[in-house]
Design a protein that fits this description.
The complex is a heterodimer of chains A (340) and B (303). Chain A is built from 12 helices and 2 strands. Chain A has 340 residues and is mainly α. Chain A has a domain of 209 residues: MetI-like fold (Orthogonal Bundle), CATH 1.10.3720.10. A two-stranded antiparallel ribbon of chain A has the order 1-2. In chain A, helix 9 runs antiparallel to helix 12 and helix 11 packs antiparallel against helix 12. Chain B is 36% helix and 23% strand. In chain B, the strands form 2 sheets. Chain B has a 6-stranded mixed sheet with strand order 6-7-8-3-9-10, sandwiched between helices. Chain B is globular and about 50 Å long. Classes of the chains: A mainly alpha (340), B alpha/beta (303). Chains A and B meet through helix 8 and helix 9 of A and helix 3, helix 5 and helix 8 of B.
């Protein structure tokens, strides 16, 4: 060998040289590409635009109320409109505070998550790892169909069918867990409670959470699954040690999407829940509401001023949904790396 | 059809002295016991050799596709057997029938028997997870669990199969030592398994398989994704492991088959399902194969 590769490299490294500035990499786009780019660009920004327009409109319309009530719009538990829809003056001064409904929104949505997410995860696990091919096909179709089901149907079904068994469960909860404040009731009537509303919401979010979780579980890399099985893992051990760590963040994301959906649900809650304007933490007691159902309840007979207040309430709902999604993103990105 | 053309007795006649001299010592001693038991049941007439694992008339299908046909092989305890043959001849499929990994593919089916110490691993009532504990597997692509550290990866099988171990640290060290990785990772056991190089990852996977103390180790082209240096290290590991266990390795690399194995089976598919063309001590396969097709393949004339 005449020259050693190593020597050459060192020599070259030692040679003084000035680093050139990087060139800009350009390519003249064809007209067809430009046109296409413009078209898909419109599509790409459309959702952002629409979202911005809605938020802007709500803020603009509700601004005067938000300003006059300031923080008490969120912390206040009273909603009194002194001007009736016919323009006559009411007895009390107006005060608008969505605090009670914010609490109602969270309470019903959290109940929905607590019931719905475990069911969804089990369903997704069954569909991914246990179901025979034929059963799987049918169930996946059913789940997808359920996701597209109109919410009024859930609401009516919840009111007329789910109420009975739901009340029975509520009674049991109250009987055995009544010492926990949230399960206590002043009078043993369990009709149209946040618990039942949460139950209906749970049924509503199960399809979407199941569909997302199934998708995520199905992406678990085959080589890791095989590695686990080759080490003598049972199915459960494989799921616990391989599929869960991999899917955790995705399932959380799916659950958060479900939460967002449950928080924004209007019709089902409106149908099932006994809408009363009060902050109700006693989930078995038949009173409460959520922001969306409150808006639809008041909207029909609202005065000019109250409509502004409702717009402001809508803006708060928008912010809340946004916050939930942002929190979900943080959770997903923080935990996402580990199992992947 | 499989032609058993072994004229054996010549246990030590393997290609590389490195693997034989070491492996043969334990082999002759441990073979004695099993030999008497299984000698009567075997069709071969040569000097009996003990069988840890036997495949009997194994067929495999993917749906309607008949992938391998009537494969029968003995894998004597403490030997390394190489499965060679062109792509699509059913080497990997055959390997995967040996520890029931074949059945994970939807539509997969098999016929025949695979006997571990004379007991059919496909017998009704068999706990598949126990089978796989005894017959471990190393895959083509290194697949350490990325959410686990190096140390946790070694002990993953203990966790997954819920085994009891008195001293985990000792076991971890022993397995990494046997896989030839201990010196390289002993100071970084808490780093993620994915932080290692490809070759190290593969040896980590070997260490991981060893931790559940299998009797047989199946290796599906374990070096095909690795550079020559890492390949050499894995081969050294294989030779070392063969002292105490049975190894079956699928490889496309004929030098590798010649270097590490005691026996070689040549598999081929003539358009139909894959079959065993020839099975013999490795040196014979590479020096004086009986079948013309084997000769053509090992000399590089086709495949």
């Amino acid at each position: 060998m005449v020259r050693k590769a190593k020597d050459v490299t060192i020599a070259e490294l030692e040679r003084p040289h000035s680093a050139p500035t990087p060139r800009t990499l350009e390519s003249k786009p064809r007209p067809s590409d430009r046109v296409f780019r413009a078209i898909v660009g419109v599509g790409g920004f459309s959702s952002l635009t629409i979202l911005g327009l809605i938020a802007g409109y709500l803020f603009f319309r509700g601004y005067s109320i938000l300003r006059s009530e300031s923080l008490s719009f969120i912390t206040g538990y009273e909603w009194v409109s002194s001007i009736n829809s016919d323009g006559s003056e009411g007895a009390q001064p107006s005060t608008y505070g969505v605090g009670a409904m914010l609490i109602g929104t969270l309470v019903t949505a959290v109940i929905a998550l607590v019931i719905g997410v475990p069911v969804s995860v089990f369903a997704a696990l069954y569909l991914t790892f246990f179901a025979p091919q034929r059963v799987k096909k049918i169930l996946v179709t059913v789940v997808d169909l359920m996701a597209a089901f109109p919410s009024i149907l859930f609401g009516l079904w919840g009111l007329y069918v789910l109420m009975e068994p739901g009340m029975y469960v509520a009674e049991l909860l109250n009987k055995y867990l009544g010492w926990i404040p949230i399960f206590a009731v002043p009078v043993p009537v369990f009709l149209r409670s946040p618990f039942i509303a949460g139950l209906v919401l749970a049924v509503m979010i199960i399809p979407i959470v199941t569909a997302i979780s199934r998708e995520i579980f199905a992406q678990t890399p085959l080589d890791r699954i095989q590695a686990a099985y080759a080490l003598g893992a049972s199915k459960w051990a494989m799921i616990k040690n391989v599929a869960f760590p991999y899917s955790y963040s995705g399932v959380v994301g799916g659950a958060m999407l479900g939460l967002g959906r449950a928080m924004g649900e209007t019709v089902a809650v409106f149908t099932v829940l006994n809408i009363l304007y009060q902050a109700n933490f006693k989930i078995l007691l038949g009173a409460g509401g959520n922001l969306a159902s409150h808006i639809i309840l008041k909207f029909g007979e609202a005065s000019e001023e109250e409509i502004k207040a409702l717009m402001a309430a809508g803006f708060v709902l928008f912010l809340m949904t946004l916050a939930v999604n942002m929190i979900a993103n943080v959770i997903v990105s923080k935990t996402g790396r580990r199992g992947r | 059809m499989s032609t058993y053309e072994k004229e054996d007795g010549s246990m030590n006649s393997t290609a590389t002295p490195a693997s034989t001299s070491a492996a043969s010592d334990t082999r002759t001693s441990s073979l004695g016991d099993v030999a008497t038991a299984s000698a009567a049941s075997r069709s071969r007439t040569e000097q009996p050799i003990g069988s840890g694992l036997e495949a009997r008339n194994v067929h495999a299908w993917f749906g309607k596709y008949h992938a391998i046909s009537d494969m029968s092989l003995d894998f004597p305890t403490g030997t390394v057997t190489a499965l060679i043959g062109p792509s699509g001849c059913g080497k990997s499929t055959f390997l995967r029938t040996l520890n029931r990994m074949h059945e994970f593919i939807p539509g997969a089916a098999m016929a025949g028997e695979v006997l571990l110490h004379g007991k059919d691993i496909y017998a009704p009532g068999t706990d598949v997870t126990k089978v796989r504990l005894k017959i471990g597997m190393v895959f083509q692509k290194p697949n350490p669990f990325p959410s686990m550290t190096i140390g946790e990866n070694v002990l993953a099988g203990i966790k997954l199969a819920q085994l009891k171990v008195s001293n985990k640290d000792d076991l971890m060290e022993e397995c990494l030592e046997r896989a030839g990785l201990w010196n390289e990772v002993k100071d970084r056991l808490n780093q993620p398994g994915g932080s290692l190089s490809g070759g190290q990852q593969q040896r980590l996977c070997i260490a991981r398989s060893l931790a559940v103390r299998p009797e047989v180790l199946l290796m599906d082209e374990p070096c095909s994704a690795l550079d020559p240096g890492s390949t050499l290290k894995i081969e050294e590991t294989i030779s070392e492991l063969a002292k105490t266990m049975t190894i079956i390795i699928v490889t496309h690399n004929m030098q590798q088959a010649a270097r590490v194995s005691d026996y070689t089976a040549f598999l081929l598919s003539d358009g139909g399902p894959g079959q065993i063309v020839e099975f013999a001590p490795t040196r014979e396969i590479f020096t004086r194969p009986r079948d013309e097709r084997t000769e053509n393949y090992v000399t590089g004339r086709f495949g």
